[in-house]
Amino acid sequence: MSSKGWMPLDNAALIFPAIRRKKWNNVFRQSVTLQEDIDPQLLQQAVDELMPRFPSFYVRLRQGMFWYYLQQVDAPPRVAEDYAYPLTFMTKKEMGRCCLRVLYYKNRLAVEFFHALSDGGGALMFTKTLAAKYISLRYGVSIPPTDGVLDASLPPQKEELEDSFQKHAAPFAAYCPEAEAYHLPGKRVLGSFLHLITGVIPADRLHDVARSYGVTVTVFLSAVMAESIVAMQDQRVPLKRQKQVKITIPVDLRRVFHSRTLRNFALTVNPGVDPRLGTYTLQEICESFSHQLSAENTPQRMAGRIAQNVVPQKNPLLKGVPVIIKSPVMRAVYNRRGEKLGCLNISNLGVARLPEAMAPFVERMEFIIGVQYSYPNNCSVITCNGVTCINIIRSTQEPELERRFFSRLVELGVPVRIESNQEE
């Protein structure tokens, strides 16, 4: 953060202002469901008190001559009652005030982030710290800065504000061409409403079933999702015209490079299977996905992929191109390739551990990512206090994917309680 209160977008964030469209932008939500209803005044106090600690979140989006940038706001955003469905469109005017929202409904507090601020891993530290601050104010408990809750009394740390992509890029870029993936069809809903189906699952049972297949929960869920999409494509597309079924999985690079940044620092991997080569058992998909993820998720490989994105940013010719020309070009490149490599995302934040003093006040946490522009479904997962919430969001009318996916989990011995923001 400069002395004048502004900072450039990190490398991953550069694309987000350019690809915004009317009624679509990259916004995601994290929420904490507490045991008792929210006190809005105390929630606002918590938001106010965290502003000095998180300067990279209390910002507005600005357009410069050559790049967009983030500028600190003069006052923290006002909390508001959750009034509609999750991830309502964040307008240009709204992002000119602040690029995050803080909402509440009954006993749930939620934060919605424009993706240029951070990824799910960085945002989770803000969300947990906000919830901890609110609980401390409401109940007078002392919550230590552990398990991803940051010390609100300290100034922001330099490492938290760094663009870790620039720091960890390899000297040379690693390029690896990928085949396009199948995209699910569907009749789009009118307007901008997003259907949300939540599967609430006992975390220990899900972990046990995944372990029985010899894989992590992320790999297991991705394999079950791929199995469901393979069956759907098989019903709609002749075998010779079918495409690969690939699941886009974000990888938190903080763990790979031991980074402490609160800004974006993740890359995606697209493990998949080709239905044209034959049928696959779930065990085979699990094993294949596990191997593909392991092969990609190494420091050397990821550093090369980081360089693939960082090298063009440093090109002197690109730097000198005005943003009004640069943005349409970036959007065109994204349209041509950006969403072609996966059927949908499965973004799993893993286990959100809480300080012991905080845990009794929390019922569960949720994580919701929006749909992409060119494909209508996405999936996000988080586990907290022994409860795993799987959120599948869509912009189409047909709930076939959710029905197949959750029914298959039940067949495999994973109990699922279904919640929805609309009757199906």
Give a brief rundown of this model:
The protein contains 13 helices and 16 strands. By secondary structure, it is an alpha+beta fold.
How is this structure best described in words?
The protein has 424 residues and is an alpha+beta fold. It has helices at residues 15-19, 40-50, 92-95, 120-139, 164-168, 203-212, 217-236, 253-257, 282-296, 299-313, 316-319, 323-338, 400-411, and strands at 6-8, 27-34, 59-63, 68-72, 80-81, 100-105, 108-114, 195-202, 245-252, 266-269, 272-273, 344-351, 362-369, 377-384, 387-394, 417-420. Strands 8, 9, 10, 11, 12, 14, 15 and 16 form an 8-stranded mixed sheet that branches. Strands 5-6-7-2-13 form a 5-stranded mixed sheet, covered by helices on one side. The protein has a 3-stranded antiparallel sheet with strand order 1-4-3, with no helix packed on it. Strand 6 (100-105) and strand 7 form a beta hairpin. The longest helix is centred in the first third of the chain and has 20 residues, at 120-139. The protein is globular.
